[in-house]
Amino acid sequence: MNSNGDLVIEVVDLIRKFGDRTVINDISFNVRRGETLVIMGGSGCGKSTLLRHIIGSMKPTSGSVKIFGQEITTMNEREIASVRRRFGMLFQSGALLASLTVGENVALPLLQHTDNSVDEIEEIVEEKLQMVGLSGFEDLKPAEISGGMKKRVGLARALALDPELLFSDEPTSGLDPIMTAVVDQLTLKLTHGEHMTAVVVTHDMTSAFRIATRMIMLGHGSIVAQGTTREAATVCRRASPISSQDRMKKNLSDYFVALSVIACSIVLLAALTFALSGFRLKKPARTLQIQYEDVTGIKVHSEVRYAGAPAGRVIAMRHLTAAERAKLNNKKDAVIVTVELDDGIPPLPVDVTATLSADTLLAPKFVALSAGTPGGKTLTNNASIEGHPAYGIEQITAAAGPLFENANKLLDNLNITVTDLHGDLGEFMPKLGPLADSLKIDVDNLQNVIKNLESVSKDADKLFGTAGTFISTTDKSLQEQMKELHVILLNLKVVTTHAKVLVESLAEKPNRVIFSGKAPKLTPEDEIIKSSKPLPGKKP
Question: Which among 44, 244, 435, 505 is least buried, having the fewest CB atoms inside 10 angstroms?
């Protein structure tokens, strides 16, 4: 097992100098078949330079490098190329050709070094891309994929020829933790299942200890530790210049810092809880109690405005008890809101009103105090007043609901009546007389309904007048809708008036309506609209 036939790589007394600076200083190690050797070290310690010497892309100042028992330091490029067919190389940046697709990059070694058919090459490319989790990306260009994906394409290309030996320069840099674990598992599968030998240069400690069977740690161009992962870790601890006493002091310092952070966190959490609770060390100088039926949208710290300008904030809210509600004039009041007023706010007049408002439909609500009438009596500190609900879309829609329902019912009844007339006219012509009398009664009823609608419309005008201030400052669209409804009602008034003429004509001479006859002179629409009383449908 320890014979030279098991050696895949032999490095003996390797030295490389650039001028007077020694980058690799007398490095020697072996790599046996099936091993995963991880080369680790800090930035600039010579890891990548050592890897370039092993694969033959750089010549050493002195020393020997053998791969598969062949000395490569004395070979020319053609001789080294024959050795390179037996190993794959994953470069640090991926080294993909930008003009080729992902699939073409992976297929490149197969096209250069094999006689496989196109179908066989496509099958191998698909298999290798699937191994690295990139199945289906064959037709994309390198510019269309991320840096981590380029690294995985480079790995698939390195595995295209099923090499005996795999060199990897920072294989997991730029990959997320999940894909790092996938690449590590693939390396373990290749080395353990396929008996591939791997040399990996990395600075990722987690990945290194996961895949390595042996490790080399470089420092300033020399090997500072070599062996299994456990042996390398032990040597590093022994080589550490930190004494036990210094380590104990460092641990105590770490504990102190941790305790300080915990203490500061507790203090900050307590301060934040204290601030959000609304508790105040200083008793408010000026307060006002406001009773509301509903305070949806208001919370502690909500803004209070007096005459539209900021005037304070909400400091407390609580539900009224049953006994407290029984004593109130408005039994529907359920919540009492305590607000704090700023010192610069003048004394509030007794006729000040408190409503819930918002700048826009989606903006946070605030308590709005009206200016009141100056010069009269003022409220005392901590006085209690009645709050008024906000006139929002929901409230206005609920108030106008019966109006819309009555209008819809009227339109439905009219539509049914007209439909019945149209369907039964030809079949029941002899019976039109009694039917017309009945319809005349219905029209009279419709006139009564119109009167009721006008009354409802007046009540609606009063309601919308009360909400006009809110609507004019928040949303003009509702006014447009009410105008449209008013127009609909006026049109309905005209239609029903003219419909009465039609019914009367049907009652008198149905044939004239159906076959011929001079059209009656109808009352103009503007007269019907302007009149506050029902008018005849036609002029005498």
Answer: 244
Q: Tens digit of pLDDT for each residue in 389-446?
A: 766 555 566 656 676 677 777 777 777 876 776 666 566 555 656 656 666 776 677 7
Contact 385, 354 (CB under 8 A): yes
What is the spatial distance between Cα 170 and Cα 330, in angstroms, rounded to a whole number? Answer: 77
Listed in sequence order, the residues at least 6 apart from 540 whose beta carbon sits closer than 8 Å to its beta carbon are none
Any idea what the Cα angle at residue 90 is, between residues 88 and 95, rounded to 5°?
120
**Is residue 193 a contact partner of residue 162, using CB atoms and an 8 Å limit?**
no
Pull the structure tokens for residue 494: 């005209």
pLDDT tens by residue, 212-244: 888 888 888 888 888 887 876 676 565 555 455
**What is the distance between the alpha carbons of residues 45 and 464, in angstroms, rounded to a whole number?**
82
pLDDT tens for 458-472 read 766 676 666 555 556
The alpha carbon dihedral of 408, 409, 410, 414 has a sign of: positive
What CA–CA distances, in Å, run from 496 to 252, 396, 537?
95, 28, 9
Residue 383 has pLDDT above 50, yes or no: yes
Q: Residues near 126 by Cβ (< 8 Å), separated by ≥ 6?
A: 135, 138
Q: List beta partners, residue 90.
A: 168
The reported pLDDT for the residue numbered 282 is: 66
Order of strands across the sheet that contains 222-227: 87-90, 165-169, 197-201, 36-41, 214-219, 222-227
Structure tokens that stand for 4 in this block: 């030279």
CA 38/CA 191 separation, integer angstroms: 13
The answer to whether the beta carbons of residues 94 and 154 sit under 8 Å apart is yes
Tokens 């408002």 identify what position? Answer: 357
Amino acid of residue 128 = K
Please check whether residue 29 is in contact with residue 207, taking contact to mean a CB–CB distance below 8 angstroms: no
Bridge partners of residue 165, in order along the sequence = 87, 197
At residue 441, the 3 state secondary structure works out as helix
13's CB contacts (< 8 A; 6+ apart) are 26, 27, 28, 62, 63, 64
3-state SS assignment for residue 150: helix
Strand 7-18's sheet: what is its strand order? 21-32, 7-18, 62-67, 70-71
**Distance between CA 522 and CA 501 in Å, rounded?**
8
- Measured CA to CA in angstroms, residue 143 lies from 149, 150, 412, 513 at distances of 11, 9, 66, 80
User: Tell me: the pLDDT tens digits for 273-326?
Assistant: 766 665 555 678 899 999 998 888 898 989 999 998 999 999 999 999 999 888
Distance of CA 264 to the CA centre of its chain: 32
* E strand or H helix at 252: helix 244-276
331-349 burial: b if 16+ Cβ within 10 Å, else e = eebbbbbbbbbeeebeebb
pLDDT of residue 362: 81
Look at the pTM and tell me if it is higher than 0.90.
no
Beta-carbon count within 10 A of 44 CB: 11
> Which residue would you say has higher pLDDT here, 494 or 112?
112
